[in-house]
Design a protein that fits this description.
With 264 residues, this protein is mainly alpha-helical. It has 10 helices and no strands. The two termini are 43 Å apart. It is found in: Cell membrane.
Length: 264
């Protein structure tokens, strides 16, 4: 195993140990309904694992988040490219973007309840309205950094619009897109729980509210630990490898440009 990887694992293990120690000390001085200890939360995790609805709740929440995020990615990327390529469209729609970024997810959740009731659509809509403006803004900013001379030169070589999009805009907006997408996914995951607490009859957010209503603090902590674990798995097992792969694609795209497009 590489030395830097061993050091990283040791650092993460030390951090986890410090957190567990502080947690255990705090739990030993407070009532369990306020702060349950690690052992009690571990027992609650086992209880959740054995429940009939455990897998369904996790899969339901993941499906809602991925669906809302997927729609937000497509819509945000297309609109971001359109606004970045047209100053007229950008000036016209800029106030709408400010509106989307100002309205909080809680307000969107209330609107969703009114419009869609208690259904999957409520959570999907809230995730979409939270993630889409972030992706749109980042893609728009990335598209604005594309140098016009590269686009004009590509057109002089009779490159088609899809080729210009792939070879000129793609490598430039990729870092902006991925930065916005990672942020949007994190926010979307969190707001999905808020939406599920008020507009769903299953899912992780619904179970959290149910446990809180019954003052089952150990189960609230168990679901929280599970959520943190899922996010760490997604971050380390999916998002970071995907980022490395995408930036390798970017480097390949840059190297494959015509020589005249790689110089000022």
């Amino acid at each position: 195993m590489p030395k830097h990887l061993v050091t990283l694992v040791a650092q993460r293990a030390l951090l986890a140990g410090v957190i567990l120690l502080l947690w255990w000390i705090g739990a030993s001085r407070l009532p369990s309904f306020v702060l349950p200890g690690p052992q009690k939360v571990a027992q609650a995790l086992v209880s959740l694992w054995d429940s009939e609805t455990f897998a369904l709740d996790i899969l339901t929440t993941c499906r809602r988040v991925l669906l809302g995020f997927g729609i937000a990615t497509v819509v945000g990327t297309v609109l971001g490219l359109a606004l970045g390529a047209s100053r007229l469209l950008a000036r016209f729609f800029e106030p709408m973007l400010a509106l989307f970024n100002t309205v909080s997810s809680a307000i969107w959740a209330i609107f969703a309840i009114i419009w869609f009731g208690i259904s999957d659509t409520t959570t999907v809509f809230v995730v979409f309205m939270t993630a889409m403006p972030l992706i749109l803004t980042n893609v728009w900013q990335g598209a604005q950094t594309v140098e016009a001379q590269y686009v004009d030169l590509a057109r002089s070589f009779h490159m088609s619009p899809p080729q210009i999009l792939l070879k000129i805009y793609g490598p430039t907006i990729l870092p902006y897109f991925f930065s916005g997408a990672r942020l949007a996914f994190g926010f979307g995951w969190r707001v999905s729980l808020v939406a599920e607490t008020i507009g769903a009859s299953n899912g992780i957010g619904y179970r959290l509210r149910q446990a809180a209503d019954l003052v089952q603090t150990d189960q609230v902590f168990a679901w929280t630990v599970l959520l943190v674990g899922l996010m760490l798995v997604l971050e380390g097992g999916v998002l970071k490898p995907l980022e490395r792969r995408l930036f390798r694609w970017k480097a390949f795209s840059l190297s494959s440009r015509p020589a005249s497009l790689q110089t000022n």
